[in-house]
Design goal:
It is built from two helices and three strands. The protein is α+β, with helices and mostly antiparallel strands and about 120 residues long. It has a three-stranded antiparallel beta sheet with strand order 2-1-3, covered by helices on one side.
């Protein structure tokens, strides 16, 4: 897997919401190999192949989402960080600008069980 290969799974919202999220990532990753398209699906997917870099202007097509969208990203730690940064940057857009969804949630590391203390 290249450093920029990323798979994005989206649930909630409609196909236009999914396309808006993917559009927010295109500035970082370039155009996806696979775009969300099925209007009747409940889960949509996009794949960024990693062969190119984006233009850095992924906020060009920002629009309000019709409802909350859950975004799950899979890829290398670097690609996931870049996706989170790209989605977070849109959330800090100037007043009046459309805002993309919240960045993907990162799972905290598993907690280590407490060690029994000796007597």
């Amino acid at each position: 897997m290249s450093d920029t290969q990323l798979t994005v799974t989206l649930s909630g919202g409609d196909v236009d919401d999914a396309r808006a999220v993917v559009g927010a990532l295109e500035g970082t990753f370039g155009p996806p190999q696979e775009r969300p398209s099925d209007t009747d699906a409940t889960v949509r997917m996009a794949t960024f192949g990693g062969e190119g870099e984006g233009t850095g202007d992924g906020q060009a097509d920002l629009r309000p989402l019709s409802e909350p969208v859950t975004v799950t990203v899979q890829g290398t730690p670097e690609a996931v960080r870049r996706a989170s940064d790209a989605l977070s940057a849109g959330a800090r857009a100037p007043a009046g600008a459309a805002r993309p969804p919240a960045p993907p949630r990162r799972r905290p590391p598993p907690e280590k069980p407490d060690r029994p203390q000796g007597r």
